[in-house]
Amino acid sequence: MGRISEIMVFNNRINYLPIFNDEDFSFNVMRVDKLIPEYEKLIDNLYVLIDKDILRGFMEIDDERLVKLYVDPFFQRRGYGDKLINYAIDNFDIKYLWALEKNEKAIKFYQRHGFNVTNEKKFEEDTTEYLIKLLR
After folding, report:
1. pLDDT by residue (tens digit) across 50-96?
2. Secondary structure of the chain in the HEC alphabet?
3. Which of 22, 44, 49, 93 has the fewest CB atoms in 10 Å of its CB?
4. Total-model pTM
């Protein structure tokens, strides 16, 4: 669970700190040691991609919803995200997901894989930032 937590923390800092501008959350709340127990609870919903004995990325799936998909920033743009999302679509028939409206990079990635932005929005919990729903 440590490696999954590490990937989550690095992605949060790179992708979400510029959006939320909350250093306390990114460096004091979002820490590997604090996330490990949370991910241990989700073990049945987590799927990992391992290549050459290195965990490159992971995703969390809940029924027909893709909850999370993260690739270690050091291994991005090498096709690992494509492998993860294609596996989710092919094996779990993923129908939808929520993405931060300002995370244009993620939205473009999902659109390349057949997801379309809808008009449905909701606030990210405890923030003023919107999540948008994407359907496949």
Report:
1. 999 999 999 999 999 999 999 999 999 999 999 999 999 999 989 99
2. CHHHHHHHHHHHHHHHHHHHCCHHHHHHHCCHHHHHHHHHHCHHHEEEEEECCEEEEEEEEECCEEEEEEECHHHCCCCHHHHHHHHHHHHHCCCEEEEECCCHHHHHHHHHCCCEEEEEEEECCCCCCEEEEEEC
3. 44
4. 0.89
